[in-house]
Input
Amino acid sequence: MIERLGSDIRSILLKPSDFFPSIKNAGLPLAYQHYTLLLIFFAVLAGIVRMIGNSMKMMDFMMAFPVFGPIIAQKICPLFTEFGLLLALGTFLIGLYLVFILGGLLHAFVLLAGGEEGIFQTIKVLMYAATPVFLIGWIPVVGIIGFLWSLFITVHGLKECAGLSYLRSIMVVVVPIALLVLFLVLLLGLIASLTKVLNPLYWM
Output
């Protein structure tokens, strides 16, 4: 699996329209192995980045207190190493199962769009499409490029593996995201309204 990982990554990133037809009849375990290897890479680097970022922020904050700050920082900052390890482990464990949950939710939209290739094809597409996110998603700010790239690959994957047209594949990807954004906007609006109404000063 490791031997072909590099060539698979290149094909997924650069030629998804050629890659997905070649793995359409392949089993789900092969895709899961690819997904798991890159998930380990992502989880470790994301944990390290978060650990360093939090440690530096704490160090800068404590330096504002010249008397006791350095001493406290020396005691607290090493704890962020353990936090980074826990974050890496948590990210890995969540990622192992999250792809199946997201795959099931996405497949509902695939069915609505007329896809007839089965849920395993949808999950397999998500596993391979996660490649850009796992490769660069751990980098602050730059990670958004990985997310958008993954969406692009998902569209190609659904077209080839779920038997959808480009337009329907785009809709299957865009509609759930639009619904999620709408839900979050409504939720934030509701929270803001409740906060305002429950504030005693609002009624004075």
In short: The chain has a mean pLDDT of 83. The radius of gyration is 22 Å. The CA atoms of residues 63 and 70 lie 6 Å apart. DSSP finds nine helices and no strands in the chain.
